[in-house]
Amino acid sequence: MSDSTNSASPSSDYASISSGDQSLQRSRRSGDGGTRAIVRESRHWHDIFWSAIFVIHLICLGFVLAVLGLNRFRISDRLNIDRYTQGFLENHKGLTEDYWPLYAVAGGIGVFISWVWSLLLGSYANEMMKVSVHILTTYLAVVSVLCFWCRQFFWGGAFAIGALLQFLYVVSVIDRLPFTMLVLRKALKLVWGLPKVIMVAHAFTVFMLLWMSLWSFGASGVVASSMGDEGRWWLLV
């Protein structure tokens, strides 16, 4: 009897241990599932929060641009904003429509160059990606030289430091560009198979064209405003 009892006890202990392990694994899986659900929910609300911040930022900025453009549209100081700048900034007489065509043409040229760039990116992806990575460094360096030329030593040094940091960043990521382009090609093939995504891209393009028109209108109003050069420069930035 004792032998039978002893022989039965290990199997029963093993069965209880295995059942305990299974229940523990199930509890862990359920816990992991709950954790994943919580993480997804938090990410969902995180995305909604930052999307709302971005939309509010665009609305506020668009309102400011519209006000600054309307203030000098056809009538000088239509909204009587110059009273806040009188006395400490130089007066300047101009109208929004005096500068708007220039900014509109510049924006149209920018759109044309971006479309040409996109077409070349589809044909010569690796070469265009390398150019796009290096062009920001060149731009910062040129702006730095122009700032030094205009005796803006602080901004010249700031843009020079920015160009140096951008150059170091380019050196560190230049070897990863082929893999990046491979991922972009796969993503492009995937997107072309989704008509709804293409519709969203076209809608976003139309929205950006409208935003460019609003920005050129507001920027023209800033240039035509009664503020001095420094005030206009800071507003444009």
Automatic annotation (TrEMBL):
Cross-referenced InterPro entries: Choline_transptr-like
Segments of this protein annotated with the region Disordered: 1-33
Alphabetized UniProt keyword annotations: Membrane, Transmembrane, Transmembrane helix
Molecular function (Gene Ontology), one example: transmembrane transporter activity
Chain intervals with Low complexity compositional bias: 1-23
Membrane topology listed for this record: Multi-pass membrane protein
Subcellular compartments: Cell membrane; Membrane
Transmembrane intervals: 48-70, 102-125, 131-149, 154-174, 194-217
Keyword Transmembrane helix annotated: yes
One CC-aspect GO term: plasma membrane
Family listed: Belongs to the CTL (choline transporter-like) family.
Function: Choline transporter.
Protein name: Choline transporter-like protein
